[in-house]
Amino acid sequence: MNAFEATNSYFHQAADRLEISAAMRTLLITAKRELRVEVPVEMDNGELHTFIGYRVQHDNARGPYKGGLRYHQEVDIDEVRALASLMTWKTAVMDLPFGGAKGGIAVNPRQLSRRELERLTRVFVDQIHDVIGPDKDIPAPDMGTDAEVMAWMMSQYSKYHGFSPGVVTSKPVEYYGMPGREEATGRGVGVLTMKMTGRAGRKPSLTRVAVQGFGNVGTHTAKLLSEAEFRVVAIGDASGGFHRADGIDIGAAIRYVNAHDHSLAGFTEADPITNEQLLELDVDILIPAALGAVIHAGNAAKIRARTIIEAANAPVLPEADRILEAQGVTVLPDILANAGGVSASYFEWVQNRQHYRWSLDRVRQELDALMLRAFDQVWDTAREHHVSLRVAAFMIGIRRVHRATQLSGIG
Ligand code: NAD
User: Quick check: is 258 in a domain?
Assistant: First the structure.
């Protein structure tokens, strides 16, 4: 099963409940537009190199397409298509006035200089500027891209279309960005983890958490939870995992990665473990915040956490999802759990359109309120229909996109 089929298997579980016709399912699953472009770049040594870039615009029934841009050597159309459709259900479950899209370039960004990355980004915008825009399609960072890449995109797009800060989100704060955007995904994960812990009647100080991935999402999640007195007993990144039963000093770990090229390699304040061991630790809450597909049929039965919060996109494969459900593990799905990022992007876009700036306090308040409202809707739907939180979240998202599609005169 490829990434797109995996996403669609969740779609069908929810569509079955909603009794959506086969014809409408095909329409809702199929991307409206898939663009593949050649991106020729002159490298620093004068050689010409050609990269392949994609932008998949999945659905815009509820508003302009919205979704990240990924720079990674394994990017292919199938992965981009899957992530684009996830964005449609994510923006819908959050009730943001956006559709879903995703883009990517098959490149290892670590092998390019910043100047080469800038040229790559600007040529990519040259190829796609006609199909993006503040009212058409609004990219944002994803793996391998950052605020500076967004600044280059805005600058290049504005050369064609005039001053357009709303064409991309997650820009640098000093360049039409917004304070609070960088922490937003991790903050959303943390806020919902606290909410679920409260619903379960658990005390944070007695709740053991493992976080896989210590980049943007992992660090902000771990920081918020440790400040709220959760016991974060394990963290990990591409270099491996680290465990300390009494809880890891997250402030010290963040200072460590900041001083060591964003890596935990060599961190001595916890015991080294493997990434596989981290996933299978005896903890209460497991938060995968790195790659997709890390929990699969091969390791699902070994997961001991009773709650999984999907901070990463698609970390649990459908066959693992079934095993976990049978084991009574509660999974908070990605389209809700990590939606803090796109929600904050929405706030940034609104401010760009209004040429107005919110305070950090306002961003946090509005974000927390949006996350908690969506959580309550998903929770209530799951209870009402006796389905998992994932199926409930998909049901809400699909219902909204389906209705908007019908109201636009189709179906
Ligand atoms: P990032 O690049 O900042 O961090 C990724 C982390 O994962 C790093 O610590 C890296 O070392 C670690 N990692 C990489 N390979 C690993 C492996 N094999 N095992 C364990 N750890 C590994 O990325 P991020 O922005 O924190 O995103 C993490 C996940 O969250 C991704 O799945 C992304 O799609 C998703 N996400 C991010 C945002 C956002 O706003 N940043 C929003 C929604 C979803």
Answer: yes
What tens digit of pLDDT does each residue of 377-401 get? Answer: 999 999 999 999 999 999 999 999 9
Residue-wise pLDDT tens digits, 208-258:
999 999 999 999 999 999 999 999 999 999 999 999 999 999 999 999 999
Contact 38, 109 (CB under 8 A): no
How many angstroms does the Cα of residue 292 sit away from the middle of ligand 1? Answer: 9
* CB atoms near residue 133 (< 10 Å): 17
Alpha carbon distance 393, 93 (integer Å): 6
- Closest CA to ligand 1's atom 25: 216
Give me the domain span that covers residue 134. Answer: 29-164
Q: Is the CB of 311 under 6 A from ligand 1?
A: yes
Question: Which of the listed residues 316, 332, 348 is the one where a domain comes to its end?
Answer: 332
Which atom of ligand 1 lies nearest, measured to the CA of 257? 9
Atom of ligand 1 nearest to the CA of 339: 43
**Cβ count near 241 (within 10 Å):** 24
Which CATH number characterizes residue 59's domain? 3.40.50.10860
Neighbouring-strand partners of residue 271: 243
Burial 298-333 (b: 16+ CB within 10 A, else e): eebeebebbbbbbbbbbbbbbbbbebbbeeebbbbb
Long-range contacts, stretch 371-374, CB < 8 angstroms, 24+ apart: 371/188, 371/191, 371/192, 371/339, 371/340, 371/343, 372/191, 372/192, 372/195, 374/93, 374/94, 374/95, 374/336, 374/339
**The whole model's pTM is what?**
0.96
Nearest CA to ligand 1 atom 19: 238
Residue closest by Cα to atom 1 of ligand 1: 215
Token pair of 275 as six digits:
């990434």
Last residue of a domain, one of 164, 197, 216: 164
Instruction: Report the alpha-carbon distance of residue 220 to residue 254 in Å, rounded.
Output: 9
Q: Strand 240-243 to strand 65-72: parallel, antiparallel, or no bridges (unpaired)?
A: unpaired
| Domain count within the chain | 2
Q: Is 139 in the pocket of ligand 1 (CB under 6 A)?
A: no
| Same domain (yes/no): 96, 223 | no
pLDDT digits (tens, 9 = 90+) for 94-124: 999 999 999 999 999 999 999 999 999 999 9
Radius of gyration of the chain (CA): 21
In a shared domain, residues 116 and 54 = yes
Unique residue bearing structure tokens 């394994």: 74
Q: E strands within 115-170?
A: 137-141
Is 159 noted as a catalytic residue in this protein?
Answer: no
Q: Which atom of ligand 1 is least distant from the CA of 214?
A: 9
